[in-house]
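pls ignore typos typing on phone
manganese (II) ion + seq
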Amino acid sequence: MSTNSKYRMGRRSILGATAAALSAGALGSVKALGQTREQVKTGEANRSASNPGPANKALEALNPDSYLPPPTDRGDLAPIWYSFDLVHRRIQYGGWTRQVTSRELPPSQDIAGVTMRLTAGSYRELHWHIANEWAYMLNGNARVTVFEPNGKIFIGDVSEGDLWFFPAGHPHSIQGLGPDGCEFLLAFDQGTFSEYTTFLLSGWLAHTPRRVLSQNLAIPEADLSKLPESGLYIFPGPIPGPLEEDRKAVGGPAVASKLDFTFRMKAMTPTADRPGGDARIVDSQIFPASKTIAAGLFTMKPGALRELHWHPNASEWQYYIGGSARMTVFASEGQAHTMDYKANDVGYVPQVAGHYIENTGNDDLVFLSLFKTDRFSEVSLNQWLSRLPVQMTRNHLHLSPSAIARIPQIGNNILLP
Ligand code: MN
Ligand code: MN
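k done
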């Protein structure tokens, strides 16, 4: 049985066992003025948490820890959960896309996310945009190109677990390869960014007089008659040949970018490898192209805890790849909110807000944490406490010196239960 089910069952049996005992006269003794800590803690153990009115049972079941919050939760935090499965899927011949931006998740001002599918051979049209673009390959294979203002071009292939970073204003393309194209997550370093507002190659040419195009491209107007009449966005194409042929065909090393705009994240040696799981941290220190996004790929075993921590320099935008999670965010003023996460959900943590994540399922939990910064940074509660004079910790938390000595001293931990 998972930690989560044990937890839920325990709380539900309390609900059943004490409801009758607390009915009728039992509640008459509760003082009407305010709620004691004990009353708040046991509020769900009587009829107070009953819900006889309408309910969306499916949504309730998805977030049991928000519906019946842990007694330590309090207050009304801005949303820390959303799901790509709640938004419109823009399906075109060749693939689809959907997005979770600050319109869907208003607190996320730093990052907007997009997931996209391209079938084998299909293109995400040549385009550019105002935000920097970071990507993680969720599935399959793709070929990407990005052109630099210095006249150099990067052409590379990516597979599951690989990243790319395309700087703002640098035109680029993505094409699905065999055998079944690809799906990937895009993260833009502007919460208000929209995939609908990108600058499309065909869209610009469709809105430029043929006379001007003819002069600019040095192509007779008669040869421009088949130009698309509007932006293509996603459209099918033939699977390209080997990567080296493409690189050679455009001019080889003489025109090739000096910078690698891709990175093999999943294939790298873990930055932290612990009994409860591992973490791969990729920022501009090891992936120089990624100047504005730092990322962590976390894998946690069943029952494992991603320790209590916070990030001093950025908010955190999460994408859940697989498994089941519960995250609690502490946002000062005694506010705390717990939500549950599944694959394709998005999590959000405000900058400097304390948080921890539990794997509540029976499978590995895998998720990405993204930050709008060039440098990953994290404060570990355990590490902090273990660096303080014992007397100081003791005076604050009323712990014995032997208890304080047990606190793990290594930061960036993923702890087993
Ligand atoms: Mn793009
Ligand atoms: Mn975090």
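Residues 127, 129, 133, 172, 198 surround manganese (II) ion (ligand 1) (CB under 6 Å). Residues 1-33 have pLDDT under 50 and may be disordered. more later
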